[in-house]
Amino acid sequence: MLMSEIVVLRLGHRPERDARVTTHVGLTARALGASGMLLTSSDKSVAGSIEGVVKSWGGDFWVKTGVSYRSAIKKWKEAGGVVVHLTMYGINMPERIGKLREEYRVKDIMVVVGAEKVPGDVYGLADYNIAVGNQPHSEIAALALFLDWLQDGKEFERAFEGGELMIMPSEHGKSVVRKQ
Q: Where does S-adenosyl-L-methionine bind (predicted)?
């Protein structure tokens, strides 16, 4: 069963404070099945860090910076995609995940993840405002849980083509091999 595309839209980013967290949002998205990330920030260092990981570890994850969130969301919806905003104020994920999985079978999903204060219109622009618990939490953790639940664990079956390095799973120790 072929699923649709997942793209993460990262809202806000304070370069002096959020570079590491935004990079981790992108790395989590990449590792757990998203095909790319849109950043409202113009911080090229985040894109460069993620592109370096893609070069080393494979896959075709992309990053685009300096994106207008309103424009990106409107274009996504006009193309028939679904917009899911992860927020602690939303409906708890278990109540909507079945519907979202149905949508994901036939529609592309944009996952909106905030940083600083999320603009109020995002709540209205999103098709779904989803909470991973109604408590303050990390956007990285919320994204990881959402991507796992949405894909029902299938993201772990994904292969990362290309790249220079590959981990050989091992019960004890670390085993990384350089591809030929």
A: 86, 114-118, 132-139
Residue 1 lies in a domain: no
- Binding site for S-adenosyl-L-methionine: which residues? 86, 114-118, 132-139
Query: What's residue 16's pLDDT?
Result: 66
**Contacting residues for 2 by C-beta, under 8 A, at least 6 apart:** none
Q: Supply the mean pLDDT for the chain.
A: 93
- For residues 29 and 37, the answer to whether their CB atoms sit within 8 Å is yes
- Does residue 105 belong to any structural domain of this protein? yes
In tens, the pLDDT along 122-159 reads: 999 999 999 998 888 899 999 999 999 999 999 999 98
Predicted TM-score (pTM) of the model is 0.93
3-state secondary structure 34-96: CCEEEECCCCHHHHHHHHHHHHHHCCCCEEECCCCHHHHHHHHHHCCCEEEEEEEEEEEHHHH
Crossing angle of helices 44-57 and 15-31, in 10° steps, is 30
What values do phi and psi take at 110, rounded to 5?
A: -105, 125
Residue ranges making up the domain that contains 71: 6-178
Alpha-carbon span 75 to 91, nearest angstrom: 24
Known binding-site residues equal 86, 114-118, 132-139
